[in-house]
Design goal:
By secondary structure, the protein is α/β, with parallel strands linked by helices. The protein has 13 helices and twelve strands. It has one domain: Rossmann fold. The strands form two sheets. An eight-stranded mixed beta sheet has the order 6-7-8-3-9-10-12-11, with helices on both faces. The longest helix has 18 residues.
Length: 339
């Protein structure tokens, strides 16, 4: 069920914007109450840009990704407000048939856990060729040839013979490569990668990140990269959005976020990153835990954990304000500084 959409629309979107999210709110109607998982967030991703969406588990990152793809179960999920525009098409205005036509071909997603995203009872080859034959109307022979090319592209050895393997016969890193190959199979212009390296060890994680980065640049795609780790996006993202407890609290270029973070939560995330060059430095954890989203605190949701909390933080939720060109933060400290 859709709520009211914000004023404006497709005609106001900049021409080189690949994806535009406008005032998106997602709620879940649960037995214990209504949980707002995404609360009035807005951001754009340009063509060819890599945008990192970071934050702790439960901040709303994956719900945002699934809302873009319209993969949320309704009910209990509800798109209470907002608009998602992909290549001048309003995703929420598409019929089920039109939506199936753009999934895979215009936009694709690499899921966090391949074992739950891939079907364990079919071979990898059967799943890949089915996607190609359905979306690109290839013959069986053409689809098999293309599947082999894709597995070779993502670095799976003996690609031809591995088409007959099942998911459980691949290692974690190889399963993630298969997921990436399937996502790239129909040459989409936009890719969502939802924490694709979380379950992998550090060495394999670095390999997968390099592979995704090379594929994006080679194919000229736009990327929404979702992770809980700011360090992961440091060298691969053009811009970063930081989410906390359903809110977007800071956005800016990667250079600006790392050099001059403007929200206390972003500062806390950066202070939590280990640095080999400074082994004597102790990590500074963010105190407390993420708030109960069924009973969130009034005002700024971060104020119970914030070292700079003021009375206004406990009463009013701060809006995103521009603190520097292209750099926005939702914090009352900036309002106080301009008074």
């Amino acid at each position: 069920m859709m709520g009211n959409t914000p004023q404006g629309g497709i005609e106001n979107i900049v021409a080189d914007t690949a994806l535009s999210i406008q005032d998106l709110t997602v709620r879940f109607h649960l037995k214990r109450g209504i949980l707002t998982a995404v609360d009035h967030i807005s951001f754009d991703i340009a063509r060819g840009e890599t945008f990192g969406l970071v934050g702790e588990s439960g901040s709303g990152k994956t719900v945002t990704a699934r809302a873009i793809m319209r993969l949320l179960p309704t009910p209990p999920a509800e798109i209470a407000s907002g608009r998602v525009v992909l290549d001048d098409q309003s995703v929420y205005d598409l019929s089920s048939e039109e939506l199936r036509a753009i999934r895979g071909r215009k936009i694709a997603m690499v899921f966090q856990e391949p074992m739950s995203a891939l079907n364990p009872v079919f071979t990898v080859g059967a799943q890949m060729t089915d996607v190609l034959r359905t979306n690109l109307k290839m013959s069986r022979a053409e689809a098999r040839e293309r599947a082999v090319e894709l597995l070779q592209l993502v670095g799976i050895p003996s690609a031809g013979s591995r088409l007959g393997s099942y998911v459980h016969e691949f290692s974690g890193g190889m399963r993630q490569r298969v997921m990436l190959a399937m996502a790239l199979s129909c040459n989409p212009g936009f890719l969502i990668a939802d924490e694709p390296t979380t379950a992998l060890d550090v060495t394999i994680q670095a390999t997968i990140l390099e592979l995704i980065d090379s594929m994006i640049h080679r194919l000229g795609m736009s990327l929404l990269f979702i992770t809980h780790n700011l360090g992961v996006v440091a060298h691969s993202c053009d811009r970063i959005g930081v989410m906390y407890a359903s809110h977007l609290v800071e956005t800016g270029t990667t250079r600006a976020i790392f050099a001059n973070p403007q929200h206390p939560y972003t500062v806390g995330l950066l202070e939590s990153i280990p640095r080999l060059a400074d082994q004597k430095r102790y990590l500074t954890p963010i105190p407390g835990t993420v708030c109960n989203m069924l009973e969130p605190p009034q005002g700024c949701k971060f104020h119970p954990r914030c070292p700079h909390a003021m009375d206004v933080c406990r009463e009013q939720a701060p809006p995103l304000r521009e603190v520097a060109p292209g750099h926005l933060a939702a914090c009352h400290l900036h309002a106080m500084a301009t008074v």
